[in-house]
Amino acid sequence: MQTDDRFDRLKIEEGANKLKERYGQMGYLNAVIEISFANNPEGGVNVIIKIEEKQICELTTINYITNNQELQKELKNLSNKYLKRAIEQDLINDITQTLQTYLANTRYLVTTLSQPEIQYNAEKTLSLIHISEPTRPC
Q1: I want to staple 133 with a disulfide (CB 3.0 to 4.6 A). Which of 21, 30, 40, 66 is the partner?
Q2: CB-based contacts of 138: which residues, under 8 Å, 6+ apart?
Q3: How many CB atoms lie within 10 A of CB 15?
Q4: Are strands 32-39 and 58-64 parallel, antiparallel or unpaired?
Q5: 19 and 51 in contact (C-beta within 8 Å)?
Q6: Is 93 helix (H, G, I), strand (E, B) or coil?
Q7: Rounded CA gap, 88 and 56, in Å?
Q8: Going edge to edge, which strands form the sheet with 126-131?
Q9: Are 37 and 47 in contact (CB under 8 A)?
């Protein structure tokens, strides 16, 4: 909305929901977005948006579920750089791409990774990812 636009409460609430969704995508799963309205002396309405980010959700562990201990060790070494970072969609995409590239380069040519399963603690401040067993190399 711009100054002097017609007041549309629904449009403002939709915008706040999109903002909360975007904060969640950036790892702020506990962000609180509050909207309030106040009449001003000129007869208009002031829109007040309060954003409380709270603690970001951090990736603490990536578990690889496989019987191949050597592969498990290699994948863990490869993905350690992603730990202690905010859990966000771009991070999940980077991890998946890195693993797929590694598997292709090391002859796991027909391997497709399962979708990462993400688990959170009760406060949604810590998370871990489970990735299922890839197939064996050619």
Answers
A1: 66
A2: 107, 109, 110
A3: 16
A4: unpaired
A5: yes
A6: helix
A7: 10
A8: 58-64, 126-131, 117-120
A9: yes
Residues 27 and 87: beta-carbon distance below 8 Å = yes
The closest of 132, 30, 34 to 87, measured between CA atoms, is: 30
What's the Cα-to-Cα distance from 55 to each of 23, 96, 101, 123, 138, rounded to whole Å?
11, 25, 32, 9, 45
Picking from 40, 45, 42, 43, the residue whose alpha carbon sits closest to that of residue 12 is: 45
In DSSP terms, 36 is beta-bridged to 48
pLDDT digits (tens, 9 = 90+) for 67-84: 888 888 999 999 999 999
pLDDT tens per residue, range 1-50: 556 667 788 888 899 999 999 999 899 999 999 999 888 888 778 889 99
Q: What are phi and psi of 37, to 5 degrees?
A: -125, 140
Reduced to 3 states (helix: H, G, I; strand: E, B; else coil), residue 90 is helix
Residues 6+ apart with CB under 8 A from 56: 27, 28, 86, 125
